[in-house]
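hey team, just a heads up i'm posting the complex here instead of the shared drive bc the drive is being weird again. everything in one block, sequence lines first with there labels, then the predicted structure for the whole assembly after. its two chains so it's a bit long, scroll down
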Amino acid sequence: MKLVTAIIKPFKLDDVKIALENLGIQGLTVSEVSGFGRQRGHTEVYRGAEYTVDLVPKVRVEVVVDSVDAAKVVDAVVEAARTGKIGDGKVWVTDVEAVVRVRTGERNEDAV
Amino acid sequence: MPLADAITPDTGNTAWILASAALVMLMTPGLAFFYGGMVRGKNVLNMLMMNFICLAVVGVLWIFFGFSWSFGASHWGGLIGWTKDFYGLGKPAVLTGVWTTSAKVPVLVFAMFQLMFAIITPALISGAIADRVKFWGWTLFVLIWASVVYFPVANWVFGTGWILNKLRAEDFAGGTAVHINAGSAALALVLVLGKRAGWRRDPMRPHNVPFVLLGASLLWFGWYGFNAGSEGAADGVAGLAFTTTTVATCAATLGWLLVEQLRDGKPTTVGAASGAVAGLVAITPACAFVSPLGGIAIGFIAGILCALAVGLKFKFGFDDALDVVGVHLVGGLTGTILIGFFGFDHGALAGGVEAKRGLFYGGGLTLLWVQIIAAACVFGYSFVVTFVIGTALKALGLFRVSAEAEQVGLDESEHAETAYAFSTLSGGTLTHPSGGAAAVADQAALTRQEV
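-- predicted structure starts here --
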């Protein structure tokens, strides 16, 4: 099993969710995060004083999938989240050792 | 003494002053939100409380002796005021009398109207020293400052004292007594207390800009009571004050935004709110002494000057957190001194007020000179006395919070509260003095079951 983690622009969340649903993904976890990459932040001005805001708000989407589906999921997220402008985010894949569905006790592939 | 017994109150005037008192009362919570939005999220409750406590403290002082010291008979050549019968505000002559034979407003109505001025003036100072002061130390400061600075200065400017009656300076609603007074005290306290940890290094962004605009709007609304109510009657001069207050605020908002557009490239919400307040401050002393066009000029000049003045703290290195010096001191000085230029004789309207001509209306330099003396004297008195009070409180360890408390934030360290539940997950337990042990026992039982 693989964990696909995507950091995306907040307004792209709906597109990504629809793309994943179209692939038949059963569930995902979303969190609001902040950080910076090459995009860095922006400048705000209050009463003439400039504040550099380094951390930009992003959304983190996490999906646990069967290993064979991982590449498809990554492609779908990348396609849905891309605007072509700086700050589109990143997607990465990590190995998952074990998964348990809490309600039924099903394990691993059955639980995904 | 302007108290007159056995005269039937004028109902129209009385109704307007009652309404004005309530309007001015709302300015203090409005100010609290104006300031509260500009501090960081960890200090917003403390900022609100620094303002709200002024209502509580000064309201009580006012009955005991505040009104007497502010509006009592003049002593020591106009330097101090008091009238024995005013202590407690319960003597028959106070309860049944009217304040002046012309306006015929009951004494208590006038006293409550003026109380609201005494409340907001110390509250104005709080923004300068945001994020670093012990709550009870501030409360003690407000008590002392109102007693030895505001009440005497109000007597000089609004009551029987020397600025109004000997110097004969013009200050309709408190450019000197309220704004220069508070702005000067703010400067003194900032110097006494020192900078916040991380000033000019850490981002100290306003945490809630909508609060700032909401607060400024409440201030604008309440300011009609402040300025038009200061006429003490519902008449044409009140109408003039209402008009100049409006147009000066409009022009100041434009002036501030113009500076921002030219200097920073963008007009900001905080700038619009600040410009409006700068205009309100500047027109306060002048509102019944200038024409509507004069009001526009004063507002526009004040908006520009204050927008530039808020940068001074970075140049000179004093941490006036929310620009009380840049807005209230500079705005108050601007309005007070510009009366010397724009003061006009509104003839038939005049009624109760004495209108003098400024430089632009053929009055020469006399009025300008008088205005400068009044402004300088209030500035000097407030600065020196505030500096002494602040230094004493700081030396006693009552004033500045610890570095750790400042780091954590004053909401938690001073009030044991947080303004916003950012997460529904807090993971604590409730302990109440009357049932705390049981709650803890229940929690222990729950934990055992889960295991």
